[in-house]
Amino acid sequence: MARARLVRPVPEKPGPGQESVWDYPRPPRLEEFRGSITVELGGVDIAATQRGWRVLETSHPPTYYLPADSFRPGVLRATAGSSWCEWKGRASYFDLVSGRTVAPRAAWTYAAPTRGFEPIAGAVAVMAAAVDRCTVNGETVLHQPGGFYGGWITSGVTGPFKGVPGSMGW
């Protein structure tokens, strides 16, 4: 039986003002973000902030973390289960609730993240594919492909992005 050959990605060349996700480090880096971030669900803005954090990891668009107090009261509903990130530690999940609209397990947090990620303790990341809309500085983001990762794609980043078919070994 022949072994599948791993196809190496060819990074897209960034244009002016863009970052290549292939220049992001592994292990990932946490950086503070100053700018507008919004999340909409059920036709309502459920979160808005002017500050947050980005986690930058090779081949991934940035994952944005918002302070928990940037979410409207009652929007975050803790749900069962957890997962483990080799870089940040144990994540717990939230359903996002807006009126009659519920996005199951659409957000997550690290209560006690590992060393280097302490600033995001209690901050909340959102799976853009599970909500109506997320924006960064007024631009509607695209969600990272594949349904597993939580990166937000803006015009400021180039790929290719992990999560597309064939990217499991990247």
TrEMBL record:
Superkingdom assignment: Bacteria
Location of region: Disordered: 1-22
Residues of the DUF427 domain: 37-128
Keywords on record: Transferase
GO molecular function: transferase activity
InterPro entries per record: DUF427, DUF427_sf
Protein name as it appears in the record: Nucleotidyltransferase domain-containing protein
